[in-house]
């Protein structure tokens, strides 16, 4: 479904965020990417919808190169790739429904959408997406009136409204308390599984990676240093990914939960 | 507090010299300006009786002026309203083309910014005078002058507001596959709407005040009547006119300030 072919990213300041990434992600897989901050996780998933353009190599989604896509073709490919963010990236001063409907912008009639007019099927779908993330009653509430967990659910609903083949999640639960984080991750996994959506999630938490992933990819300094199943991802492996003792990492986790 | 004080560490010399130099420059500019503008406190104080006599001439108020005030006063408000309305609409493309995060490309952005800076460097009364020269006397050149002023100021304030928005929603809309204009309508407009509405009201206040003097250069409104009264030394009528204008401006400012306080 998604393939990386020698992908490198060098930022204008000379920082090399990705160094020769080669990966193949089959359809329907739920992949968790782990690694320290700055390891290149965010850059990696942003090359999949071309928010970050590789300086070398290319990324193919569904067999077509998104790296080389431009203009209307790029927008059309992006419309098939949902994305959720650590800070939710909702438009806070507008209603939840309008935020979810903005997920339809890639495929809606452009002129009508500028006037705020959406087809009945788009409206029905937006409400259905809110139903699926468990907050149908919040449709006409302003986004900034919701709790963090609810806002991230709106973020998921917006991505679902795209009816995506691929879902990207950049630290989706890093700003949430642990019980909420688990609930949101659970919803994300259940829904993407139901729809057969190929999903890539960046995560900080090791236990969570083990709980939810079909496959774990470990990154360090812009390179893939581990690629395997959760069973293969032993404490020893995590120590290597993080470049320091796992107990240290567990201490950090303990602070978050405690 | 006994014994000899320890010597204080001295602050570095250069900043002190800069400080002294700044004050000296400030004083020198004051003296030069006062000299060439014949500014003198003495004359000001000696003028107080004349000042009071001037106000004396305004008394008793000549309320016969009242009926002929309403029409030009209304015209003044209409100039301000139309100028703000069309100026606001005209500012929209400049706002987005002149903002780093929404512009089509950097060349367009710097072009728009440079053009607007140029436009803003001319005061509105001068625009009014120029427009009167081109379009002849009447309220229409006044409207055009206010439009030019409103567009240039709102475009500047708007661009600053757009550049200060949270970039997150824009990234999300980009990821969704939204086009440039869709990104602006869905990601930017909701974030700037309240602030911009407040700016528009504030500029309407400024425009009402600006429109009252447009008549001095023949661009319509109450200023024309004011100039007529003054040239006939009709101070009692002038006083009524000033009082009415004062009342209307204060009223509009109050309503607008209240509305703005509710917006943000």
Q: Please tally the β strands of chain A and state the result.
A: 10
Low-confidence stretches of chain B: none
**What percent of residues of chain B are in strands?**
under 5%
Number of helices of chain B: 11
The radius of gyration of chain A is 18 Å
Helix/strand-derived class of chain A?
Answer: alpha/beta
Characterization of this structure:
The complex is a heterodimer of chains A (258) and B (264). Chain A is of the alpha/beta class and 258 residues long. Helix content of chain A is 38%, strand content 23%. Chain A has 10 helices and 10 strands. In chain A, strands 6-7-8-3-9-10 form a 6-stranded mixed β-sheet, with helices on both faces. In chain A, strands 2-1-4-5 form a 4-stranded antiparallel β-sheet, covered by helices on one side. The N and C termini of chain A lie far apart (39 Å). The model of chain A is unreliable at 254-258 (pLDDT under 50). By secondary structure, chain B is an all-alpha fold. Chain B has helices at residues 13-36, 41-46, 48-57, 66-97, 106-120, 124-135, 139-163, 168-176, 180-214, 222-231, 235-263. In chain B, helix 4 (66-97) packs antiparallel against helix 9 and helix 6 crosses helix 7. The N and C termini of chain B lie far apart (55 Å). Classes of the chains: A alpha/beta (258), B mainly alpha (264). At the A-B interface, helix 2, strand 6 and helix 4 of A face helix 8 and helix 9 of B.
């Amino acid at each position: 479904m998604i393939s990386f072919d020698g992908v490198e990213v060098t930022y204008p300041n000379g920082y090399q965020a990705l160094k020769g990434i080669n990966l193949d992600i089959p359809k329907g897989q739920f992949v968790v990417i782990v690694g320290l901050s700055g390891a290149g996780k965010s850059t990696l998933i942003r090359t999949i919808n071309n928010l970050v353009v590789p300086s070398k190599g290319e990324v193919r989604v569904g067999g077509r190169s998104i790296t080389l896509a431009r203009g209307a073709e790029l927008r059309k490919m992006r419309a098939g790739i949902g994305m959720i963010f650590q800070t939710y990236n909702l438009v806070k001063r507008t209603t939840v429904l309008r935020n979810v409907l903005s997920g339809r912008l890639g495929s809606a009639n452009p002129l009508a959408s500028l006037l705020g007019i959406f087809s009945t099927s788009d409206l029905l779908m937006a409400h259905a997406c809110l139903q699926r993330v468990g907050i149908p009653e919040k449709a006409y509430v302003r986004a900034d009136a919701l709790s963090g967990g609810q806002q991230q659910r709106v973020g998921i609903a917006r991505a679902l409204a795209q009816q995506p083949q691929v879902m990207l999640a950049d630290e989706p639960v890093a700003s949430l308390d642990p019980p909420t984080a688990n609930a949101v991750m659970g919803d994300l996994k259940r829904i993407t599984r139901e729809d057969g959506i190929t999903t890539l999630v960046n995560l900080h938490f090791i236990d969570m990676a083990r709980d939810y992933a079909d496959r774990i990819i470990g990154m360090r300094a812009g390179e893939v240093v581990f690629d395997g199943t959760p069973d293969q991802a032993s404490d020893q492996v995590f120590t290597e990914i993080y470049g320091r003792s796992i107990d240290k990492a567990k201490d950090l986790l303990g602070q978050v939960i405690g | 507090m006994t014994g000899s004080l320890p010597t204080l560490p001295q602050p570095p010399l250069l900043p002190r010299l800069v400080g002294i130099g700044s004050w000296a420059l400030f004083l020198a500019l004051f003296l030069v300006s006062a000299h060439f503008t014949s500014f003198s406190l003495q004359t000001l104080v000696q003028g107080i009786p004349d000042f009071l006599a001037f106000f004396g001439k305004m008394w008793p108020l000549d309320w016969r002026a009242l009926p002929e005030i309403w029409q030009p006063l209304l015209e003044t408000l209409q100039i301000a309203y139309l100028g703000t309305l069309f100026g606001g609409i005209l500012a929209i493309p400049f706002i987005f083309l002149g903002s780093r995060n929404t512009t089509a490309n950097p060349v367009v952005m710097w072009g728009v910014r440079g053009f607007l800076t140029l436009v803003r460097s001319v005061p509105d009364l001068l625009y009014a005078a120029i427009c009167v020269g081109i379009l002849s006397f009447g309220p229409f050149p006044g409207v055009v002058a206010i439009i030019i002023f409103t567009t240039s100021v709102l475009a500047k304030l708007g661009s600053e507001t757009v550049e200060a928005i949270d970039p997150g929603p824009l990234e999300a809309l980009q990821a969704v596959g939204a086009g440039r204009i869709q990104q602006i309508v869905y990601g930017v407009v909701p974030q700037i709407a309240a602030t911009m509405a407040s700016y528009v009201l504030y500029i309407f206040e400024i425009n009402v005040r600006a429109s009252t003097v447009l008549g001095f250069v023949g661009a319509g409104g109450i200023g024309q009547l004011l100039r007529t009264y003054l040239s006939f030394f009709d101070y009692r009528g002038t006083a009524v006119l000033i009082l009415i204008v004062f009342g209307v401006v204060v009223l509009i400012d109050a309503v607008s300030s209240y509305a703005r306080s509710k917006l943000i």
